[in-house]
Amino acid sequence: MTKKIRWGVLGAAKIAVTKVIPAMQQGTYSEISAIASRDLEKARQTAQNLKIPKFYGSYEELLADAEIDAVYNPLPNNLHVPWTIKAAEAGKHVLCEKPIALTAEEARKLIETRDRAGVKIQEAFMVQTHPQWLAVRDFIRAGNIGNLQAINGFFSYFNNDSTNIRNQIETGGGALLDIGCYCINISRFIIGEEPRKVSALIERDALSTIDKLTSAMLEFPCCQSTFTCSTQLVPYQRMQFFGTSGRIEVEIPFNITIDQPTRIFVDDGASLFGGTIETIEVPAANQYTVQGDLFSRAILENSEQAIALEDSVKNVSVIEAVFRAAESGNWEIPKSF
Fold this sequence. Notes:
Layout: E1 5-10, H1 14-24, E2 30-36, H2 40-50, E3 54-56, H3 59-63, E4 70-73, H4 80-89, E5 93-96, H5 104-117, E6 121-123, H6 131-141, E7 148-158, H7 175-191, E8 197-204, E9 211-219, E10 224-230, E11 232-243, E12 247-250, E13 262-267, E14 278-282, H8 287-301, H9 309-328
Parallel strand pairs: 1-2, 1-4, 2-3, 4-5, 5-6, 7-10
Antiparallel strand pairs: 7-11, 8-9, 9-10, 11-12, 12-13, 13-14
Helix pairs in contact: 1-8, 4-5, 5-9, 6-7, 7-9
């Protein structure tokens, strides 16, 4: 019988209840053993609905459970660092939702905690472990579109509900932290380098003051990456990669379907009408199942995890630089790690 990591979940966030928990319950190396909420009845009902054996009315109770090996932290952005630290200090490995921290300085504290506690901590950028993105990275690095010169990304949805935490600046809301971070992360992942400097424009909501529309340009040693993200535009997402002899377009880059193949379009540029575009299909996979199992295996085997915590610090450093660039109107340099 395959040994599994026993997971506890902090809170009943929508992403946990609708996506991550059901996906990890399908994993080979992961099992969801407990869930905690500050509302005991909510924890009980969620546990019942998702067939989770144990439930708690506080996060502290879950962290005190000696039968929990690892914790998934999907709490609001401003609670990522404090509760990840508490979980690690309780001896639990932690998979924390993105962005793992609001500042690079906060993220560095997680490295200190990880090393002191002797546990694994990983940011939940599930896209990096999906076969689609592994295929795109390998295809580009093999030179199949020539030399990569430019990346363009777009990620948007519409939500102007003032009660939603994504629209509350005090909880770390806003477009850049919620979805723009994906465009930054994937650019860094594909290129394998860090941007030397960034520039940005931000339009803030008049009432909430969160960034509702953010555009940025990242200058890498090899190429440029630009993206736009918004929480108050028509829902859309796309990533394109332009080389000297070809182009790749990823149809659904982030909210990847689990019940049908994903499509990657490869264009040699011979026809502006797309007559020569080749479609590559990547078999369906649940990125949350893959993410959970890879992290669980890293724990079981005491091996290297898929996404290093040091990488997360660098990603947060770029996010910070984008905010600074929008404020200053100048190019800003991400702080080195």
